[in-house]
Specification:
CATH architecture: Alpha-Beta Barrel
Strand content: 15-25%
Number of domains: 1
Number of helices: 10
CATH class: Alpha Beta
Shape: globular
Oligomer: single chain
Order of helices and strands: EEEHHEHEEEHEHHEHEHEHEH
Number of strands: 12
Structural class: alpha/beta
CATH superfamily: NADP-dependent oxidoreductase domain
Helix content: 25-40%
Radius of gyration: 17 Å
């Protein structure tokens, strides 16, 4: 599978990343249908399939329920095969989220993530914005905490998962390594962020590249996965699309569609 550099590191990440929210959380989510959390065996099988397909990028977060703990337990000795992206700032208590971007909270969150993931570093750490992107970036002290953790070797790349165009543009202006933004054929509001990232060489992770499984509404195109991936990777800034699934057939289809979108077949 095609891979691209992770800014600020000597690492490369696969163009498709596996989102792991469904490994640990099935409450207060916005997917089209309900689902049960997978067994350990099912997760291990899915991780094996992902590696076979060339995926090395895993996306998790404290807000994803038990995702971090399960990954830490199941990756084991194979941890170094993966580039891990986690987050800080949002926590989920089983029913609702709370946010805290103070330096102390960010530091504690990252240390807790390292413990849960059973690792000594996270390749990329993103602030998990509550929507007040500019406040988080400029006034909370969260970035300074992440820079300190990066200097200590506990984080390799620093970024933010944004919810506003202004926040994405500000992150790039500040020189952060990565931004995670929403972009798909049915939502193009943040295209200017990708344009700015292309100019600066900022890593861009895309969330909701498939519209969270809704594909833009009740009448999606005939092949919505291929349509979406061809669209998002037509922009030169796209580093990786993070797609969450616990269905092996869907994962295979996503990888096939990605290879077609990138002209690899």
């Amino acid at each position: 599978m095609n891979s691209r550099p992770l800014h600020g590191t000597d690492l490369s990440v696969s163009a498709l990343g596996l989102g792991t929210v469904k490994f640990g959380r099935n409450q207060s989510v916005k997917y089209p249908s309900a689902f049960d959390l997978p067994s350990d065996e099912a997760i291990l099988s899915l991780l094996d399939l992902a590696r076979e397909e060339g995926i090395n990028l895993l996306d998790t977060a404290p807000a994803y329920g038990t995702s971090e703990e399960r990954l830490g337990q199941l990756l084991g000795s194979r941890r170094d095969e993966w580039v891990l992206v986690s987050k800080a700032g949002e926590n989920f208590d089983g029913t609702s989220s709370t946010f805290d971007f103070s330096p102390a909270a960010i530091t504690a969150s990252v240390e807790r993530s390292l413990s849960r993931l059973r690792t000594d570093r996270v390749e990329c750490l993103l602030l998990h914005s509550d929507g007040n992107d500019i406040e988080v970036l400029d006034h909370s002290g969260a970035l300074e905490a992440l820079f300190t953790l990066r200097d200590a070797g506990k984080i390799q790349a620093v970024g933010i998962s944004t919810k506003t165009v202004a926040g994405g543009l500000r992150a790039i202006e500040l020189g952060l390594d990565a931004v995670m933004v929403t972009y798909n054929p049915w939502y193009r509001d943040e295209e200017s962020v990708l344009d700015a990232a292309a100019e600066q060489g900022t890593t861009v992770f895309l969330k909701k590249a498939l519209g969270s499984g809704w594909f833009g509404g009740e009448a999606p195109p005939e092949n919505p996965v291929a349509t979406a991936l061809q669209f998002v990777f037509s922009h030169p800034a796209t580093t990786a699309a993070i797609v969450g699934t616990i269905n092996p057939a869907h994962l295979r289809d996503n990888c096939r569609a990605l290879r077609e979108a990138l002209g690899e077949n």
